[in-house]
Amino acid sequence: MPPVSGGNPDPFAAYQKARQLSGPVPPATVYVVDDDASFLAAVTRLLRAGGYEVRGYSSAARFLQSPPPADSPGCAIVDLQMPDLSGLDLQDAPTKMDHALPLIFLTGHGDIPTSVRAMRQGAEDFLTKPVKKQALFDAVRRALARDASERAQRARRRELRTRFDALTPREREVLAHVLRGQLNKQIAGDLGTSERTIKAHRANIMAKLEIQSVAELARLAQEAGFH
Hints:
The chain is α/β, with parallel strands linked by helices. It has 2 domains: 11-158, Rossmann fold (3-Layer(aba) Sandwich), CATH 3.40.50.2300; 166-224, Arc Repressor Mutant, subunit A (Orthogonal Bundle). The protein has helices at residues 11-22, 37-49, 60-65, 87-91, 112-120, 133-165, 169-179, 184-191, 195-209, 214-224; strands at residues 29-33, 53-57, 74-78, 103-107, 125-128. A 5-stranded parallel beta sheet has the order 2-1-3-4-5, sandwiched between helices. Helix 4 links the parallel strand 3 (74-78) and strand 4. The protein is elongated, with a radius of gyration of 23 Å. The two termini are 43 Å apart.
């Protein structure tokens, strides 16, 4: 992989974070989608020479029919205008994949409204053909760093959901009251039980969620999307 310049995000650091949360991270793959066979071959050679693993597709439909493995690291370089499904159509179809990879649009048919739409919908970059090697590699590095960060976030959410799923229905009830700022006595009154029982439930909640304070509890619940 080409060296990361000082001003660009470092994908290695993001991969390390992802690895801490979800175990070993397989090598990232750059997926190139372009109906121009000669251009597809040229970009594939260029990226492979730069140390990247590359997989090419001659159409957006083929990419969607054989998408990357679930939550595998990578990014996609996509042509804008292709027969049947365009690059923008591919960007609009994240539900066909287990997760949406960062997209880099690379096209000879770009215009300002199209590029604005692509960027607003989350594209990492919008480059025009012919593209300079350094500009392409810089965009790929940014996209891979973003992908690694997003995968780390997904791993974190899965890990938190596992913790919250371990709570019993009663503990989840108590948790909801705690997050509203109620004291044990108030919660006991609302739930028709003793204050001692509420204290026991709170202790179980803290142990299962691996936290020690209400402040941590509130932050963790917000991060996990607990309502």
